[in-house]
Amino acid sequence: MRLIFLGPPGVGKGTQAKRLSQELSIPHVATGDILRVAISKGDANGKEAKSYVDSGKLVPDELVIRIIKSRLSDVDMREGFILDGFPRTNEQADALSNMGESGKVDRVLFFEMNESGLVLRLAGRRTCPKCNEIYHLVNRPPKKESLCDTCGGGLIQRKDDHSDTVLERLSVYKKETAPLIMYYEKERLLSHIDANGAFEVVEQRVMAAVLRTA
Q1: Which of 11, 133, 172, 198 could form a disulfide with 7 if both were Cys (CB 3.0 to 4.6 A apart)?
Q2: 125 an active-site residue?
Q3: DSSP three-state, residue 74
């Protein structure tokens, strides 16, 4: 099963991707994580990515595509994957399609939620900087206050989850990523997922969409 998870920031697609990855025993490939791994490896792509990150600039499409293409060629990706955060633009989607068999996609899940709900969800989100596990003060609180259930690290609120930056993030999403909805609608690959409700309820909707694809 080769899947793409699409949706605005804060919609919960990353958390759902991690759970589905465990259920299907396929890798969850999040763009932010894969960039961090490339940087830590210190290879040519990683060094180039680091130069952009260190200067506060966005990593350009061409480099992101190279890093994703390299990851898709790994042995553990042959049985399937969940791409989370890639593609972000129609140009990246074209590049993925042009990767041949390794870039073939079975289904694209689009997580939907209204803007007011997204603002509330992002404002309550907390992240573990050690293992990147994500929690929510209301919908998915940690067992121990401010501590990660997985590694025990202290939870933080990322700067881009502050309420004063959320609307700007949503504006960028609408401009750059939302056109992908039309792109994959035309390819007849898109499934709409109502992201409102408890985690377990949304998880059931995700699994139903995946089972229909299988």
Answers
A1: 11
A2: yes
A3: coil
